[in-house]
Each structure stands twice: as C-alpha cells, then as structure tokens.
Amino acid sequence: MTNRRTDEDELRTIDVPAGLVAGLRSGRAPAGEVTVAAALAADRLGTQPRSLTFLAEVVRRGGVGYAVTLPEPLPTPEQAALAATWLGAADSVTERGPAYDETVARWLESVALVVAARRQAGAGRPG
User: Is 88 exposed, middle or buried (0-12, 13-18, 19+ CB in 10 A)?
Assistant: First the structure.
C-alpha cells in the first residue's frame, strides 16, 4: 500500500497568513490556493460560512484595524483564534491601497464560498 498525499493534504500545508500577506502586498487578493487552504482550516473547525460572511462585513464596515481588535471574531475559541491569525496577518501589511479593506472582505467571502461549496458537495463538515 502506497502512502499518497492528496491535493487536500498539500493544501493543508500552505501557510495561510503568509499567503494572505503576500497577496495583499501585491495589491490583490491572495492566490486561490491560499483561499482554499483557509477554507479547509475553517471547515475543519466547523466554521459556518455565514460567520465568515459576517466577519467580512465587519471588515468592510469597520476596516481590518477594527476587526483585528475583536475578542471573538468568530463564534468558538478555536475559530476565533484562526480568524485572529488571518486578521493579524492582514493588519501587518503597511502598504494599503484605497480598496484594502474591501479586498480583505472579499477574500473572507471567498473563503466562505469555498466552505459552503464543500458542504454542498458533501466534502466538508456538516453544518
């Protein structure tokens, strides 16, 4: 029997905060692989897509600087810790264009869409 790594295994090794920073520093959303890796991590913790969408709206309305100060950006302590790493990474980027917060919000919405799609396809955690 061969021990084969799946695409999902490979995606789980991606450093999401570093990928998020790299994408944002380039003035755009992170690469698709970073988004999917974030969705896998969020899904593994049972994060609801609507929670990620709500967090995206908080970022859109209050900015990354505000969202990073939230004690519980997502419902459970584990989910909150995950979101805090993403928000902290996004907040560490100093070169911000006028659409910076919108870019982060749209990225969070993309993560939510991937989680929802996985669940709809039966690949993700039921929720």
Answer: middle
Under a CB-based contact definition with an 8 Å cutoff, are residues 53 and 87 in contact? Answer: no
Q: Helices 49-62 and 77-92: crossing angle, nearest 10°?
A: 40
In this prediction, residue 4 carries a pLDDT of 66
What is the amino acid identity at position 50? R
**pTM, two decimal places:** 0.89
Contact 119, 126 (CB under 8 A): yes
Name 57's Cβ contacts closer than 8 Å, sequence gap at least 6.
105
Q: Which amino acid is at 115?
A: V
Domain ranges of the chain: 8-120
